[in-house]
Design brief:
- The structure is a single chain.
- The protein is an alpha+beta fold and 319 residues long.
- It contains 9 helices and 14 strands.
- Helices cover 29% and strands 25% of the residues.
- The protein has 2 domains: 141 residues, Beta-Lactamase; 161 residues, no CATH class.
- Helix 5 runs antiparallel to helix 7.
- The protein is elongated.
């Protein structure tokens, strides 16, 4: 996963949300300033404001010390027990509110529902501009009006280091021949048939444990587990109907076998640094590799094919 791309996607979505919330909360804060700090009057103002914020879970007002001056206002009514609550230790009260008086907090886990949430904070000022306190609006992430498109994972090379305990002991281990190692040509042939002609868009070979997991284009929510007996019996292909190769697949059909052969070859590059598992996804074009040192690589299929045995044997797998 590209941290930069993901961060940028999150930032864009947060900006959209901030733009949706900034004006309603500014209007609410102005109305609260006129009745501050009367509890009943604040409850009335916040109740009216909540009706215009259907995605909001709770509205409330606090003083400058983050002590609650109103009840919690919810769509199901007032929660009186929260009057006087000290919110000073909550993460959104410890972020710096910008000079314009509005803050959309970082996401956090809520105390009660234990759900990913965020809070919008708006400063309340009197007619002379003095800070009276804050209006807070809590949102469950599930209820937010998200407007951004689905995040697209960039197809670039990622290297991820694994368990330090495994990495530290890597020189104390050697590859033990598995059942898949002994029948690797048959296994690759079966996997090629499944991916090229039988509707499998993602397949992962677990060399050390002699099994595979596959996902079907027409049934993507459930994976199938194939043991070594299934992987070494070409008749296994008969239980999956023949399917046209997806027109939107990134990997060309004729490149599946070379990619699988190259993945299998990494199993035998070295007795210490060797492949434990390898995967191919024809839809996003990514190859996944996990080595004996527990280091993992994810890279585009065409870039993977340009790397020869010498490249991986040079210690790249170990990171």
């Amino acid at each position: 996963m590209s941290l930069t791309a993901l961060t940028e996607a999150v930032a864009r979505q947060r900006q959209v949300l901030a733009n949706l919330l900034r004006e309603p909360l500014a209007i609410t804060a102005d109305a609260c300033s006129r009745v501050w700090p009367n509890r009943a009057a604040l409850n009335n103002v916040l109740t009216d404001a909540l009706a215009k914020l259907p995605a909001c879970k709770y509205l409330y007002a606090t003083d400058t010390r983050a002590i609650q001056l109103s009840d919690n206002i919810s769509h199901s009514g007032l929660i009186e027990a929260d009057y006087g609550r000290d919110r000073s230790s909550r993460p959104y009260m410890n972020e710096v509110v910008p000079s314009q008086g509005f803050l959309l907090s970082e996401a956090y886990i809520s105390l009660r529902a234990k759900r990913p949430s965020l809070t919008a904070i708006q400063i309340v000022r009197d007619a002379d501009g003095r800070v009276l306190g804050f209006v807070g609006a809590d949102f469950d992430l599930r209820n937010l009006p998200l407007t951004g498109k689905l995040y697209d994972e960039p197809t670039v090379w990622h290297q991820i280091k694994g368990d330090p305990a495994i990495r530290g002991a890597v020189f104390q281990q050697t590859r033990n021949e598995s059942a898949m190692d002994r029948a690797v040509d048959t296994v690759v042939g079966v996997m090629e048939e499944l991916m090229a002609d039988r509707g499998v868009f993602h397949g992962k070979l677990h060399f050390s444990s002699s099994r595979a997991t596959v996902w079907l284009y027409d049934d993507p929510y459930r994976y199938r587990l194939l043991d070594i007996d299934a992987l070494t019996d070409p008749d296994t292909c008969l239980i999956y109907p023949v399917q046209p190769y997806p027109t939107d697949a990134v990997v060309p059909r004729e490149k599946i076998r070379p990619i699988l052969d190259a993945i299998a070859a990494l199993r035998f590059i070295d007795d210490t640094f060797y492949l434990r598992a390898g995967s191919l996804n024809i839809m996003n074009g990514m190859v996944g590799l996990t080595f004996s040192c527990d280091g993992s690589h994810y890279l585009p299929w065409d870039e993977f094919l340009t790397k020869g045995r010498e490249f991986w044997a040079s210690g790249v797998a170990a990171g």
